[in-house]
Design goal:
Radius of gyration: 28 Å
CATH class of the largest domain: Alpha Beta
Number of strands: 25
CATH architecture of the largest domain: 3-Layer(aba) Sandwich
Distance between the termini: 35 Å
Shape: globular
Strand content: 15-25%
Structural class: alpha/beta
Number of domains: 4
CATH topology of the largest domain: Rossmann fold
Amino acid sequence: MEKLFNLTTDYKPQGDQPNAIEQLTQGLQSTSKHQVLLGVTGSGKTFTIANVVNNVERPTLIIAHNKTLAAQLYGELRELFPDNSVHYFVSYYDYYQPEAYIPTTDTYIDKDVAINETIDRLRHAATSSLFERRDIIIVSSVSCIYGIGSPQDYYGLLTSIEQGSNLDPKILLNKLKDVQYQRTNTDLTRGTFRYRGDVVEVFPSHQESIAIRIEFFEGVVESIKEIDPIKGKTIRKVGKTIIYPSSHYVAPQDKIKLAIEAIKEELKQQIRILEKENKYLEARRIEERTNYDLELLTTMGFCNGIENYSRHITGRSEGEPPWTLIDYFPEDFLIVIDESHQTMPQIRGMYEGDRSRKKTLVEYGFRLPSALDNRPLNFKEFEGKVNQAIYVSATPASYEITKSNGAVVEQIIRPTGLIDPEIEMRPAQNQVDDILEEIKKRIDVGDRVLITTLTKKMAEDLTEYYKDLGLNVNYLHSDIDALERIKIIRNLRLGEFDILIGINLLREGLDIPEVSLVVILDADKEGYLRSETSLIQVFGRAARNVRGKVILYADVMTGSMQRAINETYRRREIQEKFNSSNNITPKSIEKNISDILSSIFEYDYFTVPKDLDTEIYDITPDKIPAMVKVFTKDMKKASR
């Protein structure tokens, strides 16, 4: 029987990896519901998980706690599984201002969003692949627990077209409109279609650069072609194609009609309740807003904010869990929670924050009570959807350890023989200037430096201060959008700058082997950013380099600092003993600097190769005709 997954790599499991892979695989095969992989930084946790997925051969959802780490995992897994279906599923908002109302100032804030079209395409690519394949890995942020519409409706409204089948092109046009494709007579863009004579051209929402041309003759599908949507040139002929809905919030017309009646009934009830409470302004407000939406739903089949009516459209009962990405997976799927000590609290907290905001909107007549069911899963609901889970962290929390009933697999030994970094504590006085000498030593040997501060202001001020001193430095914090963060980290690895200053974003999962020094300012300021877990995670950023070192600037040894240092030296002892017994000389991790971004969006510029700069001056007139022939041949080959 042919294997489902094809793990492609020149590396073999080493250190603690073989044992971890075997234990986790056996646990999944013996139906253990929860397991923990306690893997130190740089021990190859992603490689271990990839081997486990390759062994058990199940559709897998990997959840990371932010878009940056999700993108990094996505890039690594695409390299490890080039023949399989690896996808990226995160929130598609570049900017998101949720609808809200502030009673104290009588301020209504309308929903304002900027959707990233590329990430929207990647989301559609993920859900379409789930329908077609089992060799699938989806790397997601916690947005996977938010409602996206019913999988039954999404897959029920797809259009399957075969060459030679009977199909009236006008029926196809109506189907495309019903699933929110827009008609155009000009450029064919994602989510649009064109109708000319007996030819329908559709640009599916999950495709990046392939549109579909369907040619009809007397009500029969004569041919189906994949085409370049810009040039219109045929890429290849196919016998069958599937067109998926252009939105995850779609429903058949009969459901829309039932939903409209249910919304009208709820509106009547809510008006009565508000008027009984003498809230006449709120009653008129909800009446006007809802009737406007109902008119759009009746005539167009959708409206802005349609997700707020998702309970009625999907036919759910009050309080029933929303449909999420998880529901698109088959029942035997595997969940991997990356950096679980961070991700699980995020999953736990999403529901209450969302509900608090929407309750105010309902109370003041901006939304019907059913809008409360347009929400993320609550924690109990999420737990109920877990089939089998592996929690991955260097510092797993008590929740994961308790859930696993002691099924904790340790991965302390690194394949490279690297040991946890040396730790030094220095007085906080003059910490900013004291770092300079250490930074210069690292830059002289081509290494990179991470500095973690407590506030955004300090990160920015310190960046400016070091720039004024002539250092090549940048900062990273939550105000910088997800794709820009990925670029900053990649540029650090490429050596475009030497020092990265940040706050919380320099903790979990950042894979930067070039970093040999991590500096923690104000390490004795007890709190979330200087807890035992946080400190161990920050220490780990220096654990991928043989010269790895951590400097803590503090005037007092706190309990968190002492416990973090003790755990680090416990691990160092195990690692040193293993290296000594096995004659291993530690070496820094060597990792390709892959461009994750190139698979997420297209560049709008072209960088001329450096070697071309010198070659271009060697061209003489007599060489030009031969060069033209070569370039013409290359051009024709590339255009096929």
